[in-house]
Write a structure and sequence with these properties.
By secondary structure, the chain is mainly alpha-helical. Helix content is 57%, strand content 0%. It is rod-shaped and about 70 Å long.
Length: 111
């Protein structure tokens, strides 16, 4: 579910928040660039405050996905390392680091 503009108030612009009363959304959108903000503005029916809330929500979602992706990448890389280490040890008949010592073929090269 998408957040409402009241849920995310990263860009306060009214006395209710104790900040300046000038409309602050337009300079922020211009600084981010209107072409970047177009999908958010279209989704928010050109309401700049709602568009910025959507932009912030998208950033938070992207950060959450990146965190999970990072952990997944490390887990996969470590699993591959363990499998290659076991395979290499079985091929050469002793415990050896395929990264620090000459590994078995094809880890060493195609020939």
């Amino acid at each position: 579910e998408l957040p409402s503009s009241g849920d995310l108030d990263l860009f306060p612009g009214s006395d209710a928040h104790g900040f300046y009363t000038l409309k602050c959304e337009e300079p922020i959108i211009d600084a981010l660039h209107r072409s970047r903000m177009k999908p958010y503005l279209d989704e928010a029916n050109q309401n700049e405050k709602k568009a910025l809330a959507l932009y912030q929500w998208h950033g938070e979602l992207t950060a959450a996905v990146q965190e999970v992706l990072g952990v997944t990448e490390v887990t996969l890389r470590n699993a591959m390392d363990r499998a290659l280490q076991d395979w290499n040890n079985a091929r050469i008949g002793k415990y050896s680091s395929w990264l620090l010592e000459e590994p078995a073929t094809p880890l060493r090269g195609p020939t």
